[in-house]
Amino acid sequence: MAKAEKPTSGVLTEEQALEIIAYLVSASDSLLSEPYHYGNFRLIDAASRLMGFMLEHETPRTGEFIRSFKEEVDKKKVWMMWDPDAFFQFVREAPGVVAAEVNRLAEEDAKSVGKESA
Length: 118
Hints:
By secondary structure, the protein is mainly α. Helices cover 75% and strands 0% of the residues. The chain contains five helices and no strands. The longest helix has 34 residues, at 84-117.
């Protein structure tokens, strides 16, 4: 897809958002006939694709986390092919990694709101 000069909303261009949507809905259709564990891979892969687009419009607030987590995802998503147990363990742990970053950002926001009101 062609890239827009600047994101139309947030950290994605309209074209990038549509590419992610297209990937997700086509994966949904494919999963009707694929083995059940492919769904885990496709969702992790979609997260990697989204993070790749986010890095094109990197923000100082989340860029370091997104870059690091994308590297981990890209390394570990292929474990599905030769070490499914390790892959499934990663899939179980990944939400906690993201939740820790969300909490860090929330704490950062709370501190900055506290400083503004002081």
